[in-house]
């Protein structure tokens, strides 16, 4: 269950061991937290002061992902910069912690634009994960290996016989279906508690939301981290031509990512200006939120969300054949998948060992070079042509957005939203494509509305006027 990094990772691992797999997700690939993260391939240096195990796992998996998933990793390197109030004692402790888990650290030069008082800077081997293409590659690899990936299909029930899980009940636009199974892995991220409750064993999950701000430019070539105890607003990650700044940690009630809270975004920006004094002038595209599932281990009492470990746990439920995996990081998804798959393969009596440490991921799909083609780009900001859209049959406008990246650039879909909706209407009819355009607009607006200040607010008004007065879009 779950087509995020963990669920697809588990299915990929089991498939390589010869197990027949089906991945099910209520949304498209990366519908959950895997599509709403910072994008950092952790070196582990962020965790050495608080969680040496997680730090060591991140460093080992960082090296492993560079080996097996090279086309999906950008080797940016990372820097840790210490604010002046951080004592030398803590910096030494941090360096020792890095050494203990083999994170290469070197004193580095001061970064342009960084607060000039933050003059102790160290380099580490952080990187950047291109999450969506990586998950698309896993899904493609699973299908090419004989597995299936069912998107927009929700698990709503399970049936057992003699204490073993035997069936799952799935709902999709086509109706309800039952699927015979020998084992089920609940990799439902923040929904994992709800899913486990379907077989009567709810999990002690605490959910925590984190908000991130997306800037329209790549502000720095490397990842920049605050060297201190982990806290709010301490990582700036470059992605292609943009940057993501985050994040926060607030307990939240529901697994669906809520709209970013305006006050939380403002606090995050204030914190950012301690690090980069001119951050308030950087052009913002939007803010977004992701939700972490945290496993509150029995006996951990009322620890705050920041104090709950970012490690992961694998749970074997009293109902035989039902497994859950909770927590962890994107960076450690392969390791999490390996540990779950070991348990499932053992349960199913498959003896083939894990292959994923050395088996490369399927290659990246070539992006189309439309320069020599007669057809124009539908999305000029992200250079998406009709040919790219045509690769994805059956997706809604929102699915096409995450699969091709249309609408993600500076105009946030002002122009290309209409063009792609017109193209989509030829496939699904005008009524449905109009509805999909409304959904697309409300998703884009929710991220822009929480970052409205200064020139961003002026630009947002301009975009609305273009849409409503220039392009004749209905105002509701
Ligand atoms: C704000 C934030 C920033 C982060 N930044 C980083 C980072 O920079 N680097 C890093 O390494 N990690 C980061 N993480 C952690 C990382 O994003 C997560 O560990 C990872 O994405 C979890 O993936 P997952 O597959 O376990 O869960 P998810 O991606 O949430 O996948 C669960 C899937 O299950 C599906 N599902 C749920 N219920 C059902 C159902 N009933 N039927 C069918 N499908 C269902 C959902 O639709 C969803 O797609 C961050 C997390 C947060 C919250």
Features:
nine-stranded mixed β-sheet; binds flavin-adenine dinucleotide; 12 helices; three-stranded antiparallel β-sheet; single chain; 476 residues; alpha+beta; 33% helix
Task: Provide a descriptive summary of the structure in words.
This protein has 476 residues and is α+β, with helices and mostly antiparallel strands. The chain has helices at 5-16, 52-68, 88-100, 131-144, 192-197, 262-275, 333-348, 386-390, 397-404, 416-428, 430-449, 454-470, and strands at 22-24, 40-41, 73-74, 78-82, 106-107, 120-124, 127-129, 148-150, 153-161, 164-172, 175-180, 184-186, 205-215, 223-226, 235-239, 242-246, 250-252, 284-295, 312-316, 322-327, 377-379, 384-385. Strands 4, 5, 6, 13, 14, 15, 16, 17 and 18 form a 9-stranded mixed sheet that branches. The chain has a 3-stranded antiparallel sheet with strand order 2-7-3. The radius of gyration is 23 Å and the shape is globular. The two termini are 36 Å apart. The model has no long low-confidence stretch (mean pLDDT 93). The structure holds flavin-adenine dinucleotide.
Mean pLDDT over the residues: 93
- Helical element count? 12
Approximate shape: globular
Biggest sheet layout: 9 strands, mixed
Task: Tell me the fraction of residues in β-strands, as a range.
Answer: 15-25%
In whole angstroms, the N-to-C terminal distance is 36 Å
